[in-house]
Hints:
- It is a single chain.
- The protein has 15 helices and nine strands.
- It is of the alpha+beta class.
- It folds into two domains: about 20-250, no CATH class; about 265-405, no CATH class.
- A seven-stranded antiparallel beta sheet has the order 6-4-3-2-1-5-9. Strands 7-8 form a two-stranded antiparallel sheet.
- Helix 4 packs across helix 5.
- The longest helix is centred in the last third of the chain and has 31 residues, at about 290-320.
- The model is unreliable at about 5-20 (pLDDT under 50).
Amino acid sequence: MMKPLRHLLMLVLLLVLAPLAHAGISNAPGRDLRVELVTYGPGRVYWERFGHVAIILRDTRSGEAVSFNYGVFDFDTHDFFLKFIRGHMLYSMDAEYAGPEVTSYIDAGRAVRIEKLAFTPAQASALRDFLLWNDQPQNRRYRYDYFYDNCATRVRDALNRALGGAIQAQTQQSAGARTFRSQSERMLAHDLPLMLLVDLGLGPRADRPLTQWQDSFLPVTLSDLVRHVRVPDGRGGTQPLVTSSRLVYAGDVAPPPPSPPALRWPLLAIGLAWAALLPWGAREHAGALARWLGAAAASLYALLGGLTGLIMLALWTLTSHRAAWANENLLQFDPMLLLLIWPLLRGLGTRRVARHWTRVLALALAALSVFGLLAKLSPWFVQANLHWILFALPLNLALAWTLWRPRVTR
């Protein structure tokens, strides 16, 4: 009697412990894995403006849920800001328990949306295996690129890989008028100074029309994109990749506008008003105060415009920021503007006659500025920078007129 009883007890123990044989997602069978895409809205800090995205794997049997994301960086990295400026940023992926991570974003006031994805057991296992491999110390780091290789594109590529290329195959159509520039401006619209700096520094690469696949460099766009993808349903038909979508928290940070703000007329008005100070201070019978205000306005533009050009030239020649290369704004903000600071101060402030080289340089810079405007008629100059031309052209013309006008030596 004891032997059958012992066998019975062993059988009961096996039946009880069998479901606990795996501790979580690392060794769960594919049928127990649920794949979710979690999208976090923009935050208040400048590096949070573009939002964030991660993959959550849930083991439906043990209840374990792990979030895999590719947005980890460390301010304490050696030469962090130098690497940031040069475009040599190293990011890495990370895996954390999903519950605390989602709660931390909610506590920060950021929107949270979770979408359940229709993965087969084999696809879920393949995704799990890839993410665990990618999370190993020797595999987790990557060279970050704002538009081509970031936290959203890495998540997109991991999902696409496990789905056999289904996402990429269905998203090659045009994204309409969207470009890297327009999407960046839209996401930064609530931080106007930062938006203007980013827009000023982007070159023509940022203005190429995007496919839907390329447009998913933004987390919010990736979330929209997967809702239109269909995958096989196992019965000869197809089904939506997103089987359910749940807004966990709406957030208290204002969402970005649907389109970037219009900049042309405001920048033209500022440029004209600024440029008007130069001839006003250079009038024949202008008083000393008017002359010095005109000199200050002219030299301030030469300083800021020259430094801007110097930075854009450095981004082109000394860094790996491809989106900043060949910036056509260099035709408006030439580094040689810096050479005009002292002649402008001396000339407008004291009415001394400008030297010949100074006048020739000012005329050449004005000609380049005009060329930048006329180049918009050419198919080879595709950068969307008309708003900066409208701002700088009046100032460049005013500088040239100020230095070339007839003067009375005193």
